[in-house]
Design a protein that fits this description.
11 helices, single chain
C-alpha cells in the first residue's frame, strides 16, 4: 500500500508538472504564473519520487535531504508565487494576503527575537513577503514576490542541502524531521510550509472572493462586458497584463481549486495520518496536485480576455502589413 501510494503520487506529480510546463510554452511563455506553478509541481514531483524510493528501499541521507528540501521547504513557496502572479493586478487580494502574512509575522516575532531557529527564518520570510504584498502595485508585487521566493530558494539550497544530521536514519518508514535534522533545516521547512501555505491559500481565496463580489456588482448594472466572449483565434497568445474581465467565475473557481490543492499539499499528511506517515504524505501530494492542476487548467481554458488574459491576434495580410490598401474587388460580392 505504501509503495503503491508513493508510485501514484510520483506519476501524478511528474505528469502535472510536465503538462503545466507545456501549457506555459504553448502560451508563448507570456504568463509567469504558469512557470511558477510548473516549477512548484516539479518540486512536488521530486519529493514524491524520493518518497517512492525511500518507501521501497529505505531512506539514505541524500535521499532524505532531497525529500525534505523539495517536499517541505521549496514547493509551497513556488506554488504560492503562482497564485500571487495570477492575481497581481488585484490590489485588494494582494493587500489582504499581505495583511495575513504580516499577522503571521507578529505571531512569530516573540520567538524570532529570542533567536530561535525554528521561528527566525519563517519570520524573516514573512516580513519580507508581506511588505511586498502590502504595497499592492502590480508590477512591484510581481517582481518583489519573485525576488523573495527566488532568494529564499537559493538560501535554502546553500543551507539545507549541506546540513548535517542529528541522529541515525531508521531503516524502515519515514523518519520524523525533528529526530534527524538540525533546527536550522527544520526552520526552513517551517518557513516554506507555513508562509507558503498562508500566501497561497489566503491569496487564492481573497482573489476568488473579490472576483465574485465584482461579478455580482457588475451583473446588477447589466454590464455587457460580462457576456459571452468569442473564442480565441488560432495561435492566440496569453497576454498576462490584459486588463479584460473575462469569465470571472472561471477564474474564481480556478483560485479556489488551487487554494484547496495547496492546503492538501501542505497538510495532507495530517489529514490522512491514520494511513501511516509515508502513505499519508503520498495521498496528500496526489490529491493536492490533482486539484492544483485542475485549477491551472481552469485558469488557462478561458475564452478571449479570460483568467490569464487570452488575447486574440487578428490575422493581417501581407499587403495590409506593408501599408497597401486592399483591393475592393478581392472581397466577397454582395447582392
Amino acid at each position: 500500500m505504501t509503495v503503491l501510494a508513493s508510485a501514484v503520487a510520483s506519476v501524478v506529480s511528474v505528469l502535472a508538472s510536465r503538462r503545466v510546463g507545456t501549457r506555459w510554452r504553448e502560451g508563448g511563455r507570456a504568463h509567469p504564473a504558469m512557470l511558477a506553478w510548473a516549477i512548484g509541481l516539479g518540486m512536488v514531483g521530486i519529493a514524491a519520487v524520493a518518497l517512492l524510493v525511500g518507501s521501497a528501499t529505505g531512506f539514505s541521507r541524500p535521499l532524505y535531504r532531497f525529500y525534505h528540501l523539495f517536499g517541505a521547504v521549496l514547493d509551497l513557496p513556488w506554488l504560492a508565487l503562482g497564485v500571487v502572479l495570477l492575481n497581481s493586478r488585484d490590489r485588494v487580494a494582494s493587500r489582504a494576503t499581505g495583511a495575513a502574512v504580516a499577522l503571521l509575522f507578529l505571531v512569530l516575532l516573540p520567538a524570532a527575537l529570542r533567536a530561535e531557529p525554528l521561528s527566525l527564518v519563517a519570520a524573516l520570510l514573512a516580513v519580507s513577503w508581506s511588505a511586498v504584498l502590502l504595497d499592492g502595485e502590480p508590477t512591484r508585487v510581481r517582481i518583489g514576490s519573485s525576488v523573495v521566493v527566488f532568494g529564499f530558494s537559493l538560501l535554502a539550497l546553500t543551507v539545507v542541502l549541506p546540513a548535517g544530521f542529528t541522529g541515525p536514519l531508521e531503516t524502515a518508514g519515514l523518519p520524523p524531521a525533528a529526530d534527524v535534522l538540525p533546527a536550522v533545516s527544520r526552520g526552513f521547512a517551517l518557513a516554506g510550509t507555513v508562509v507558503g501555505a498562508v500566501v497561497g491559500i489566503v491569496g487564492a481565496v481573497a482573489a476568488a472572493g473579490h472576483l465574485l463580489w465584482q461579478h455580482a456588482e457588475r451583473a446588477e448594472t447589466a454590464s455587457p462586458v460580462l457576456g459571452d466572449q468569442p473564442a480565441p483565434a488560432a495561435g492566440a497568445r496569453w497576454d498576462w497584463q490584459a486588463p479584460g474581465p473575462g469569465p470571472v467565475r472561471d477564474r474564481a473557481v480556478a483560485n479556489l481549486l488551487v487554494a484547496t490543492g495547496v492546503s492538501l499539499v501542505a497538510g495532507g499528511a495530517g489529514v490522512a495520518s491514520f494511513l501511516g506517515a509515508i502513505t499519508a504524505d503520498a495521498v496528500g501530494i496526489t490529491v493536492g496536485v490533482v486539484l492544483v492542476a485542475a485549477g491551472v487548467q481552469r485558469a488557462v481554458s478561458g475564452r478571449a480576455g479570460g483568467p490569464l488574459g487570452v488575447a486574440t491576434v487578428p490575422s493581417v495580410s501581407p499587403a495590409t502589413a506593408a501599408g497597401e490598401r486592399p483591393d475592393p474587388g478581392s472581397g466577397p460580392v454582395s447582392g
